[in-house]
């Protein structure tokens, strides 16, 4: 067996074949010379070796070998007395030359084709191999950079494949491979191999049984999938962490595709679905519409669901209350789009805020009760403070200063009570407005006149810009309250020698007013919360205040069907802009809901 393998290795090497064919040709010619008989050897015995040499050496060397072999043979046969005629020489030499040249051309073409195929195979990012019953007969050079073992080490039949297989995978892989070989089936498996430096890599091994006449073998390829395995493991780990994060929130979260089908829902959302008895099948907005009869504000709920179904780019935030259970939920939805604006689906978030709303109701009731109870004694206190010093006996300068401090703080407390009562009335049923045609520009001028002493005390420039008249259908008392609050805030938060400007303009069907100051400005992070009840910006924490003034302003403006916005830049100042319709608001806007004032 060893001799057979050795001969096979020699004949498998091109140089070995050339040497072997030349040696055989020389032995044949020597035998003919020694025999010295034309019957001992003929052209038919020389031509196979000439062809073999030409096939491996090429057409030109093949032609040269054919010429030399024929010449030596001709010398031998002529010495034996054979009649070597020109026709004999031409005929026999032509046969030798055609064999040497033709087989050499065929061999050269075959080798070029083989080189192209080998370059193609060896240029692939994988290891090709072929195996017969006797063992591995071919493996591509890519195996060496992959595992650190040369191709000769793999072809020596030493069982290297089994030795470099990871111990934890060896039994499983060998068993599966043995079953595939016995059944002549395809084989595919992922397992680990150990490099020469001891590092383990993951590979995918695929092979197929090939039957070629009487010969049969198995051919396959090995691909390094270490990076893919690591990436898959990382993705799996991240997906597990992300799922744990989503399931660990108190909010119900789900994701729907472009059509509204639910793709994913976390555990809290699944729990909400069970508790609210939502349908398990169907589009998201259709499932939610199934409980519309149990919603307190059914019309608004239905309108929102239809809007979300027909407008992919809509972002919404809503509260809805269940009629029987009085449970309150806050729903938030946001579209998911790619960088190029392609709509992928929608994120739905659901949070139960029943407890928070109950606390709000209790708090509002308490504030309303306390404020109402404080109003009467405060009025008495302020009245008696104003009477002090008006009698026959005058107060000393120090006593007068103490009384003024008490009066000023009592008035401040009274304003806070009035604001709380105002918001309580809004929460309880809305704000009643006494609408009439009023000159908003004149209201603004009057508010500036009232604020002149406070501005002068800080040496502020208080200016007005606008038309002589700007008429709108508003409640004069409430709009005056808006200007008073905004202007007093501007004066309070503007440093000495600063500027406060009030402007009014009339557009097509609206009146727009702005109050601009040159104060320190409001941090960007605080601006979205400016109109929240009791909220105070970090930039104004050192100034006295209740955090209710802007809430009141917003309630009044929106009660008129208008809008108020804020634009502020740190170090440059702040501008509050309110827009009021010139005509009376629609009937449903006569009342400002409690949610508006929050």
Structure description:
With 598 residues, the protein is of the alpha+beta class. The chain folds into five domains: 2-122, no CATH class; 125-229, Beta-Lactamase (2-Layer Sandwich); 248-352, PAS domain (Beta-Lactamase), CATH 3.30.450.20; 357-428, Orthogonal Bundle (Helix Hairpins); 436-597, 2-Layer Sandwich (Heat Shock Protein 90), CATH 3.30.565. The protein is built from 19 helices and 17 strands. It has helices spanning 2-12, 14-35, 43-57, 59-79, 86-123, 143-147, 151-155, 160-164, 167-183, 226-247, 267-276, 284-289, 298-310, 354-387, 397-428, 440-457, 476-492, 549-559, 594-597; strands at residues 127-132, 135-139, 187-194, 200-212, 215-224, 252-256, 262-265, 316-321, 328-337, 343-352, 436-439, 461-465, 471-474, 499-506, 510-517, 563-569, 573-581. The strands form four sheets. A five-stranded antiparallel sheet has the order 2-1-5-4-3, with helices on both faces. The model is unreliable at 1-10 and 588-598 (pLDDT under 50).
């Amino acid at each position: 067996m060893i001799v057979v393998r050795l001969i096979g290795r020699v004949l498998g090497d091109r140089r070995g074949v050339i040497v072997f064919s030349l040696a055989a040709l020389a032995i044949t010619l020597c035998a003919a010379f020694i025999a010295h008989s034309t019957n001992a050897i003929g052209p038919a015995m020389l031509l196979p070796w000439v062809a073999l040499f030409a096939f491996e050496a090429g057409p030109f060397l093949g032609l040269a070998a054919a010429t030399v072999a024929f010449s030596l043979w001709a010398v031998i046969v002529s010495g034996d007395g054979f009649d070597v005629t020109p026709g004999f020489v031409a005929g026999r030499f032509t046969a030798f030359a055609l064999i040497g040249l033709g087989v050499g051309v065929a061999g050269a073409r075959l080798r070029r084709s083989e080189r192209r195929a080998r370059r193609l195979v060896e240029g692939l990012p994988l290891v090709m191999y072929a195996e017969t019953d006797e063992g591995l007969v071919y493996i591509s050079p890519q195996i060496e950079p992959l595992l650190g073992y040369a191709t000769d080490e793999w072809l020596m039949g030493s069982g290297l494949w089994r030795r470099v297989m990871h111990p934890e995978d060896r039994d499983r892989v060998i068993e599966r491979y043995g079953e595939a070989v016995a059944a002549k089936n395809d084989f595919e498996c992922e397992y680990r191999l150990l490099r020469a430096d001891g590092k383990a890599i993951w590979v995918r091994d695929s092979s197929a049984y090939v039957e070629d006449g009487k010969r049969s073998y198995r051919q396959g390829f090995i691909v390094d999938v270490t990076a893919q395995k690591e990436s898959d493991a990382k993705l799996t780990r991240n997906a597990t962490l992300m799922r744990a994060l989503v399931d660990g929130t108190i909010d119900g979260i789900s994701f729907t595709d472009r059509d509204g089908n639910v793709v994913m829902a976390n555990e809290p959302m699944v729990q909400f679905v069970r508790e609210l008895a939502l349908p398990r099948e169907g589009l998201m907005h259709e499932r939610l519409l199934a409980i519309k009869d149990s919603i307190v504000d059914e019309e608004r709920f239905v309108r929102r669901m239809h809007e979300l179904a027909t407008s992919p780019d809509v972002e919404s935030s809503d509260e809805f209350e269940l009629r029987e259970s009085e449970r309150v939920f806050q729903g938030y939805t946001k579209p998911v789009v790619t960088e190029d604006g392609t709509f992928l689906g929608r994120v739905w978030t659901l949070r139960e805020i029943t407890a928070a709303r109950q606390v709000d109701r209790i708090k509002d009731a308490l504030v309303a009760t306390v404020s109402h109870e404080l109003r009467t004694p405060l009025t008495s206190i302020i009245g008696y403070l104003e009477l002090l010093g008006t009698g026959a006996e005058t107060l000393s300068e120090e006593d007068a200063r103490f009384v003024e401090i008490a009066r000023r703080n009592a008035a401040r407390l009274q304003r806070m009570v009035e604001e709380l009562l105002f918001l309580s009335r809004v929460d309880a049923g809305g704000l009643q407005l006494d609408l009439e045609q009023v000159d908003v520009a004149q209201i603004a001028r009057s508010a500036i006149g009232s604020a002149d002493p406070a501005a002068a005390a800080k040496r502020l420039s208080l200016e007005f810009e606008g038309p002589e008249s700007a008429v709108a259908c508003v409640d004069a008392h409430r709009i005056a309250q808006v200007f008073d609050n905004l202007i007093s805030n501007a004066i309070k938060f503007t440093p000495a020698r600063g500027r406060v400007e009030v402007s009014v303009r009339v557009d097509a069907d609206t009146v727009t007013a702005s109050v601009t100051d040159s104060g320190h400005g409001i941090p960007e992070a605080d601006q979205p919360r400016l109109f929240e009840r009791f909220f105070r910006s970090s930039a104004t924490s050192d100034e006295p205040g209740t955090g209710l003034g802007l809430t009141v302003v917003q309630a009044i403006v929106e009660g008129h069907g208008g809008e108020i916005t804020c634009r502020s830049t740190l170090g440059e100042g702040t501008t509050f802009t309110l827009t009021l319709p010139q005509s009376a608001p629609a009937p449903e806007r006569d009342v400002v809901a409690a949610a508006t004032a929050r």
